[in-house]
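From the thread on structure requests for the teaching lab: each student submitted one protein with a one-line request. Submission from student K.M.:

"Model Protein YOP1 from Wallemia mellicola, tokens only."
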Amino acid sequence: MASAADIQAKLNYYVGQVDKQLAAYPQLAKIESQLGVPKAYVVPGLALLLFLFVFFNIGASFISNLIGFAVPAYYAFLAIESPGHDDDIQWLTYFVVFSFFTFAESLVNIVTYFPFYYLFKIGFTAWLMLPQTKGAKTLYLNVLRPVLFSKNKTQPRGSFTADDLRQKANAATSD
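Reply posted by the TA:
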């Protein structure tokens, strides 16, 4: 059986590890100095506060939409500015799937029938957006794409890469 001192030492070690990871975010250092509370306590505290708001349905719709839109929008902006195209495809796929999900959500009033719906929605959007799970790609390839192509019977024609669209826009607006 571990003593209280051993548990405290282990806890301090983990708090130190979390603090090292959070040192990469200068905004958290500002918050830490203003509040006088270590970063390693502020972040889990904010996460717990958001969880409680969603759990008790206080602004849950706003919070779940903020998580589902703002975080991916930031990473999509970074992807657009990066030289590669893999991350562009990931975020474009995410927004296609998230748009279908949001549209379907507005048609079906499931919120009133499903307890803790917004907790489920946050978990689902996290699964969609995380690069480790690639949920949006999975859902797109296995559900949306077959449904859309079964109705259309053809693959989309033309080239729709960002470079091609940029060239077409430049050609259309040139004198």
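TA comment: The chain has two domains: 11-56, 59-142. The chain has a mean pLDDT of 88.
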